[in-house]
Amino acid sequence: MYTKQEIIIRSYREGKSQRQISRELQISRKTVRKYLREHEEALQTAVSEAAGRTINLSRAPICKKAQPRTKIKLTREVESAIDRLLEKNKQKKQQGQGKQQLRKERHTRSTSRSGL
């Protein structure tokens, strides 16, 4: 079984574009570019081309972890807005209006605010 990196490099050597490889493997073009760039760097630093191929394909891929996201705090203002919307939903349901009509109302309200 081949690793993702081996498949990407083999496809690139066969003449496929990065975009075509990303479509076929259903992965991001940035991922394809990252693996190809790492492979090129390994080839440039290796003593021989064969050694570079072996070293690069046998090691685990380098994963850069994103910085942790800060948590969004639930403020009193947001809580009161949620409570108002829930109460409005309850009233609409009692009047026989379902979710679809409520969504339509929100949509028309938001488009009228944005000037569309």
Structural write-up:
With 116 residues, the protein is an all-alpha fold. Helix 1 (4-13) crosses helix 3 and helix 3 (29-45) crosses helix 4. The chain has helices at 4-13, 18-25, 29-45, 49-58, 76-94, 99-114. It has 2 domains: 4-58, Arc Repressor Mutant, subunit A (Orthogonal Bundle); 76-114, no CATH class. 69% of the residues lie in helices and 0% in strands.
Short key terms for the protein model shown above:
single chain; 116 residues; Arc Repressor Mutant, subunit A; 69% helix
CATH fold name of the largest domain, please?
A: Arc Repressor Mutant, subunit A
Helix count equals: 6
Number of strands: 0
Return residue spans where pLDDT drops below 50 for at least 5 consecutive residues.
none
Number of domains: 2
Distance between the termini: 53 Å
Regarding CATH, which class of the largest domain?
Answer: Mainly Alpha
> Radius of gyration in whole Å, from Cα?
26 Å
Q: What's the mean pLDDT score?
A: 77
Order of helices and strands: HHHHHH
Strand content: under 5%
Structural class based on helices, strands and sheet pairing: mainly alpha
Shape: elongated
CATH architecture of the largest domain: Orthogonal Bundle
Helix content: 55-70%
Main sheet: strands, sense, barrel: none
